[in-house]
């Protein structure tokens, strides 16, 4: 006669599979000292690479000439359409196999480049939409002051456009952090392993999913504060600074928000 597992046994098995605190405590030191630092390094490097590529691609996408827009449009459409895992393999495995080895045999550089290329494709569209949302009169006013087109874009239009897309950029940065988990496919060397790689090794060794839960907590510790920080910055930029000190003599009078009158002033 077959006996079904009691609810208590099933609950204990579930808790032990995902909340094995002894295994989590054993995994956390490596996650913090190695995995977290490498994840931050890969994501930060990818964000820098992505922003540089995105700014160039966005400027090309805004050109009036179709043959200038075409390469940028192909790049954006291709790398937004490909699965991330394919791009990581094409860059991290395909380039070295083809004899293109800008980082030698070190997979860490290829990991940053792969995530950066993907990030640049998405961020280019974010920048393009932000720049196009700026009133065309801003560019015309800058040109009337004698600025060249590129100088006016760099100093006047692009900063305003980027300010308007900060929340979308925060979402993309969070996406870069999460996508860095796929670079484990490149076989990172000892000391280069990121959060998912370390957790996956422990899961394969112990057949327990608790290390994945620990890695997830580390990812949340990165992504949630970043989201709130950028949202706070966006709010401050939209509201503008509030001045509380009296104006200095000779300083131009800048309109300030109305302040309620005090009892003495009412009298």
From TrEMBL:
GO biological process: amino acid transport
CDD domains (UniProt xref): TM_PBP2
Chain intervals for the UniProt region annotation (Disordered): 238-267
GO molecular function, a single term: transmembrane transporter activity
Subcellular locations according to the entry: Cell membrane
Protein name: Amino acid ABC transporter permease
SUPFAM superfamilies xrefs: MetI-like
Keywords (A to Z) from UniProt: Amino-acid transport, Cell membrane, Membrane, Transmembrane, Transmembrane helix, Transport
ABC transmembrane type-1 domain sequence ranges: 36-230
Membrane topology value: Multi-pass membrane protein
One Pfam assignment: BPD_transp_1
Family indicated by similarity: Belongs to the binding-protein-dependent transport system permease family. HisMQ subfamily.
CC terms in the record's Gene Ontology section: ATP-binding cassette (ABC) transporter complex
InterPro entries: AA_ABC_transptr_permease_3TM, ArtM/GltK/GlnP/TcyL/YhdX-like, MetI-like, MetI-like_sf
Residues passing through the membrane, by range: 40-62, 74-95, 212-233
NCBIfam families: HEQRo_perm_3TM (TIGR01726)
Major location (coarse): membrane
């Amino acid at each position: 006669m077959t006996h079904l597992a009691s609810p208590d046994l099933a609950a204990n098995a579930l808790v032990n599979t995902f909340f094995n605190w002894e295994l989590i405590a054993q995994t956390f030191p490596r996650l913090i000292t190695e995995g977290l630092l490498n994840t931050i390094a890969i994501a930060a490097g990818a964000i820098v690479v992505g922003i540089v590529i995105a700014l160039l691609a966005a400027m090309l996408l805004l050109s009036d000439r179709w043959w200038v827009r075409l390469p940028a449009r192909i790049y954006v459409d291709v790398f937004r359409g490909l699965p991330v895992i394919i791009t990581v393999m094409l860059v991290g495995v395909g380039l070295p196999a083809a004899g293109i080895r800008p980082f030698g045999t070190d997979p860490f550089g290829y990991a940053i480049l792969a995530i950066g290329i993907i990030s640049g494709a998405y961020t280019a569209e974010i920048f393009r939409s932000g720049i196009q949302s700026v009133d065309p009169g801003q560019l015309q006013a800058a040109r009337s002051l004698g600025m060249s087109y590129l100088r006016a874009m760099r100093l006047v239009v692009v900063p305003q456009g980027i300010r308007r897309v900060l929340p979308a950029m925060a979402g993309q940065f969070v996406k870069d952090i999460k996508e860095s988990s796929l670079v484990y496919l490149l076989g990172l060397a000892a000391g280069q392993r990121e959060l998912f790689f370390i957790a996956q090794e422990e899961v394969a060794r112990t057949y327990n999913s608790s290390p994945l839960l620990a890695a997830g907590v580390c990812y949340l510790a990165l992504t949630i504060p970043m989201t709130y920080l950028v949202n706070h910055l966006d709010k401050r930029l939209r509201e503008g600074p509030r001045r509380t000190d009296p104006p200095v003599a000779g300083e131009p009078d800048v309109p300030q928000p109305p302040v309620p009158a005090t009892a003495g002033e009412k009298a």
